[in-house]
Amino acid sequence: MDDLLLATCGPDPVPFADAVAAVRGYAVAQRWLFARTPSRPAGHWVRVPAYRFRVFDAQPADDDDESLALSVGAAEGLHGVARDPDVRFGFFREADNLRPLIARAETDAAGRPFWELPPRRATEGSVVAALEAARALSQPDHGSAVLHHRRPRLFPLLSRTTARLIGTLASAHEATVWALIHEDLARNATAFELLETAAVAATGQSMTRLRLHDMLTWLVVTRRWADAIREGHWSDQAGPAHVRPAAHGDRSTVGSGHDSPDSD
Length: 264
Hints:
two-stranded antiparallel sheet; 53% helix
């Protein structure tokens, strides 16, 4: 299998087997959470998913022409729900303004996914206009997630965590963040095609290379790479019914990251 040469994951090639294990680990890893419930007010430890796979990647597709409600809900699963109801419902109204931009981008793309668009379309045009409009919303990470969930083959994911690294790399190459993602996908077209197939077998869920690129980048930037790979390899050997809480560890020091409620 081809290794992946991803600008966002460091200078060394990412072994294909490690990429598959990282994706599987993201889907199945668990962590401990101390919770208080009415039945156990003193609290107790429970195991919960370590990452947001179930509440974002496993959510149903959104094909509602009249609303982006399903995509907004998926975005909240990935990045969290605003505590202030006014903020939350204000974002619902903002996100609705993305619908005509999505429609225009789809028309211009003419059925092509983001990675098959001409390189200049990763720096200008209706697809980039929609991406930039989403990043300009009051909750930009949610905005990007709304676009991706709505059209997962057309709109890349970006969060404040990954944007710091990708933005720095893009500036060094005098490119845009979208162009850098496009270059990564084009350079690794064969490997990503294989990874998309392997990801379905590993997780039971179809994910496009846009999401897989974001996932791998996020795991590296937040220093969860080693955790995800370890869990992925372990679950593959133990079988899908066997999962264990994730540990803590680093793959590399590429970028920086921290735990936060709105990280994916």
